[in-house]
């Protein structure tokens, strides 16, 4: 498997796992009537794109693609800054 394909599979896995975990928490929260589980499901759903960008950034630098690695790093900084700003 080529490095680019490995990176695609890693990103795919992160997105799939994030949505699956979020969905499971949301369904469980609805079934049990537990608001904390619902909140956790929403939080995981919101964090999934950020984790995706983090995995992509690390993968791009690992492959030696510095140009797109720095672009991805800027996107990650914007996401982290937005998350920090929203919670301050």
Tell me what you see in this structure:
The chain is built from 3 helices and no strands. It starts with a helix and ends with a helix. Helix 1 (3-32) runs antiparallel to helix 2 and helix 2 packs antiparallel against helix 3. Helices cover 91% and strands 0% of the residues. The protein has one domain (3-86). It is mostly helical and 88 residues long. The mean pLDDT is 95. The chain has helices at 3-32, 35-63, 66-86.
Seen as an oligomer or otherwise, the chain set is single chain
Q: How many structural domains?
A: 1
Q: How much β-strand is present in the residues?
A: under 5%
The largest sheet is: none
- What characteristic shape results from the CA principal axes? flat
* Alpha carbon gyration radius: 16 Å
> SSE order, as H and E?
HHH
- Report the end-to-end length measured between terminal Cα atoms: 43 Å
Q: How helix-rich are the residues, as a percent range?
A: over 70%
Mean pLDDT across all amino acids:
95
Count of separate DSSP helical elements? 3
Give start-end ranges of low-pLDDT stretches. Answer: none
SS class: mainly alpha
Number-wise, the strands total 0
What would a concise description of this structure say?
This protein has 88 residues and is mainly alpha-helical. It is built from three helices and no strands.
